[in-house]
């Protein structure tokens, strides 16, 4: 399994169908999750608890969207 949070969340190493679209969706989603994680952890941004909560919600929404996208391309 990948090392980044995004790769872990969308399980980039798990693609039994070997479908290219699945790989593409998972990689792009992992990138989005990682961008937000880097933003959240960058001390220069000085995020408060509410901003961190919003980042977490966005990451979860991306993860959910990836699941729906994978379902769509493997139907």
Account of the protein in words:
There is one protein chain. The mean pLDDT is 91. This protein is mainly alpha-helical and 75 residues long. Helix 2 packs antiparallel against helix 3. It has three helices and no strands.
Which radius of gyration do the C-alpha atoms yield?
13 Å
Computed structural class:
mainly alpha
Poorly predicted ranges:
none
Element-level helix/strand string: HHH
Helix fraction by DSSP (H/I, runs of at least 4):
over 70%
Terminal residue distance = 25 Å
Major beta-sheet overview: none
Q: What do the pLDDT scores average to?
A: 91
| DSSP helical segment count | 3
* Shape field: elongated
- In total, the number of strands is 0
Proportion of beta-strand residues: under 5%
Indicate the topology:
Layout: H1 5-10, H2 20-41, H3 49-73
Write a concise synopsis of the structure shown:
Helices cover 71% and strands 0% of the residues.
């Amino acid at each position: 399994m990948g090392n980044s949070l995004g790769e872990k969340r969308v399980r980039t190493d798990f693609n039994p169908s070997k479908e290219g679209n699945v790989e593409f969706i998972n990689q792009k989603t992992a990138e989005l999750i990682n961008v937000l994680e880097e933003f959240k952890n960058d001390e220069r941004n000085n995020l408060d608890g509410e901003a961190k909560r919003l980042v977490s919600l966005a990451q979860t929404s991306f993860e959910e969207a990836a699941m729906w996208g994978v379902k769509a391309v493997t139907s």
